[in-house]
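Subject: two folds for Thursday's group meeting

Dear M.,

Sorry for the delay on this. The cluster queue was jammed most of the week, so I only got both jobs back this morning. I'm pasting them in the order they finished. Each block is the input sequence followed by the predicted structure tokens. Could you check whether the formatting survives your parser before we put anything on slides? The first protein is the one we discussed after the seminar.
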Amino acid sequence: MKQDSLYFQSELYVVGNLDMEGYPVVYDEQTDSTKQQERHYYLLSELQTLVKDLPSSFQQRLSYTTLSDLALALIDGTVYDIVQGLLDIQHLTERNLYNQRQKLHCEHRALKQDLIRKHKEALQVCKSHNIAVMKTNQQAEMETLEIRVRDEQRMMDEKIVLELDQKVIDQQNTLEMAGVPGFYITTNPQELTMQINLLELIVKLQQKESQTGGPA
């Protein structure tokens, strides 16, 4: 019975791969290969067109080989999803950091306003012969607050720069791991600008494909 069971399972498997006339279906691997070649050519052609909008200095650095490798990396659309995910994270991070800085700014403004109010109230009840001394003390108190505000703003800005730098490293590493040409961890300004241009090309091409549905 076990042999019969295996036989029928095998027979059903074969039947499932027969065409309408009862002949086994032969999948043409060349069809997939041809489609990939056509898509690669389409992506490469689109990238070559988009590159023309970049500064000439960067156009010269984006060789045919680099663009061809980039087109290959974009064929299945995975890189589009990765880039979109990275951009979403970047925008969320920037918004959070901006909100943190705004919150600190509001706190500092409230501290200054509160101190000014206290100083004004104190002067109103201060005896005339003590006003000069009180004003001197109040000036020193305000200067101390100003120093505190500057220090806290500086620390906040340093924190923001560090977090954004880390996001850049994360993006570089992720895209390098995804096989996107031109991406690796670097702090070289020229290389960073090149990577920004490559990202711009990817985003523009993704937007165009979303609007047109890709090649016909």
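Second protein, same layout:
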Amino acid sequence: MKPTTRPRRTTRAASLLGTAALVLAGCGTADESSGSAGGALTLGFVNGANTHFHQCLLKSVEQTAKAEKATVFSANSKQDAATELSNIEDMIARNVDALIVQTVNVDALEGDIAKAKSAGIPIFLTSVATSDLSDVLGVAKVDLKKVGALDAGWIAKDAAGKDVKVGIVAGAPGAASDLLVGGFEAALPATAEVVANQPGMFNPAKAQDVAENMIQAQPDLDYAFVANEEMAFAVRKAFDAAGAKDVKIVTANGTEDGIAAVESGQLSATVANSAMAIGETAVKNTIGLLDKEQGVDKIANIPLVLVTKDNVSDAPQYCPK
């Protein structure tokens, strides 16, 4: 998609601005950030869920857009691909200048991109991307396979060649979780056996249930890989209650609480991938690519940091204030 085929508008219908706080049909709320009401660039942000990551991502998108004097309409797909497509359609109806999408499922992106292309609206992706980016404005990409691989590498180093048993508490099937788990499993040493792999659905209560069953079935578990820190805390609680305090947990996000838990030893390692950095990059690069600014790459890779007790000070800020 060529963003220049659709010139930026300089006016906005009063009815559009008046509906900024209304509920989008079937998909949650649409919020308008601060911005000039006349010629402001309008961005439609379609978020994927309500986890701490997604909340921080939304805050980052809104704050960065405000600083860039752009207006944001947001909607939440609540981990449902059909709702995501409906959100895309609603943003198209609002005639936004560009879409920013945190997808619930990589497979859903094909329909999203096709809808945006047919409407002549550029689409920018966050966290994950399709293999074919020809119809995409750009992407702020987190190498989720590498995230999983970094955690697996820590286990390999810590296990030091010993035979070990590993459990996996995944997220929701599709998109981020599949990439995370795939990268993790592929990078595990031959001496590490995955003895359990169940989805926690990015829900701490569900993850705790999964962990309780896992440790009961595998009482000699050595390590657990958990797809995000919110679930990791619930898994830690379940393991500790079962007397399995020696099971070492590795995870991902890099939140303030997660870093503190690594420092205290509650978690062994986490891979920091800042939601704030993703949101900032998405908004700034969307605007830069629309304006054909020099030096703005179509694919921007978000920095990753494996955080352990030895380098907690290296963790980037995760969430905007």
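Two things I noticed about the second structure. The CA atoms of residues 273 and 304 lie 5 Å apart. The longest helix spans residues 52-67.

Cheers,
T.
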